[in-house]
Amino acid sequence: MEVSNEEGAVYRTFVETYKIISFVMGVGMIYPNPKTDKRKIVCVLLMLISIGPLSVMILNDMFNSLAIRDYVNVIRHSTVVGPFLGGFFKILIQFYKRKPAKEIMDEINRDYASYNDMTVVYKNIINSNIENNLVYSEKCWAITVVTCVSSFPIMAVLSNLHSSLFSTEPKRYMIHDIMLPYIDPEQRFESPIFEIIFAYMLYACVLYMINFIGYDGFFGLCINHACLKMEIYCRSFEDALRENNERCMHWKIVKIIVEQNKLKRYVDLIQDTFNIWLGLILVATMIQIGTCMYLISEGYALDLRYLIFIIGTVIHIYLPCRYAAKLKHMSMETATLIYSGGWERLTSIRTRKMVLYMIARAQIPIEITAFNLMIFDMDLFVAILNSSYSMFTLLRS
């Protein structure tokens, strides 16, 4: 279901509101549009074929390094190729979960269309939420991903310029150095092999950015919208209790209960859509942080690229934990907001019982889990960092 927007509407569709995330999701073949399913399959297959040679070359170099026990080089490759291939796995997950993802989009579109008829007080709440989404879940996240990934080609370009301008014997630097099969190791720095591999890796960097900006940013927008829905119906409850007409008050509270039920179904859609992905990044980032720390401490030199990369990895797992913790806190806060809304002024026993059930339901925290097992919150974030450090000490020993 698409929401038609009249001219002059304050709140428009998801695509028109979050243009960066929507564009990247479209380019990355993860935007949930049933009309483009066949096109997505063809494009994803072409992308997989295009990155196949690079993946094979890196895996081959990892195997050779493992054979000679060069574990630092194995970790250096796995640090990069793991998340890169994981990005394509996210495309497959999103295609598999395209129906609940589409329902999430439709729910956001319907809500934004209904917000155009609300009063200024509600629009201030909505504007604050959308502004927060645009700044943190969209722009800041996009900048974080671009910074982490672009540090590799930028450092390579700067190193090549510095070497050619100030070194008597100029050296060439790849974006990510790999040993190419079937040729002499030094030949990878000769023309045109060096230029071809450099351009190929630059293409891989673009795919890297696309795969991480869209899907992960979409999760943050979904969670923040759930918090907005709760904030709005809590405010609506306060307004409903100010009604002098008891019948009108009763029906307004019924509508709020309907919204409470809609929120539960909406969160279930989020859980269904992102359940597998959350489990994968939980395990992947825990390993990633530990191996990056080992690479920085035991590598050949302190590499700024991997230092930036480890910061990006920590942010990558922090944000889902932070969003999920925010949702959990807001869901429990609604019980307090409803209780403090002025229910004591109610004279109808029937309406009081309805409020009682609303509070009882709100006291059950809404939680986002990975693999339907691990609850995502800030406690999990701390546990992941502790496990990553334990892995780091184990690798060093």
Task: Quickly describe the structure.
Helix content is 77%, strand content 1%. With 397 residues, the chain is an all-alpha fold.
What this model shows, in words?
Keywords: Cell membrane, Membrane, Olfaction, Receptor, Sensory transduction, Transducer, Transmembrane, Transmembrane helix. This is Odorant receptor. One of its GO terms (biological process) is signal transduction. It holds the Pfam family 7tm_6. The chain is mostly helical. It is 77% helix and 1% strand. The chain has 11 helices and 2 strands. The chain has a two-stranded antiparallel ribbon with strand order 1-2. Helix 6 runs antiparallel to helix 9. The radius of gyration is 25 Å and the shape is elongated.
What's the SSE blueprint?
Blueprint: H1 14-17, H2 19-27, H3 37-67, H4 71-96, H5 98-115, H6 120-166, H7 193-240, H8 246-298, H9 304-339, H10 349-362, E1 369-370, E2 374-375, H11 378-396
Antiparallel strand pairs: 1-2
Helix pairs in contact: 2-7, 3-4, 4-7, 4-8, 5-8, 6-7, 6-9, 7-8, 7-9, 8-9, 8-10, 8-11, 9-10, 9-11
Low-pLDDT segments: 1-5
Q: What's the order of the H and E elements?
A: HHHHHHHHHHEEH
Question: How many individual helices?
Answer: 11
Broad structural category: mainly alpha
Characteristic key phrases:
Odorant receptor; 1% strand; disordered N terminus; transmembrane; transmembrane helix; 7tm6_olfct_rcpt
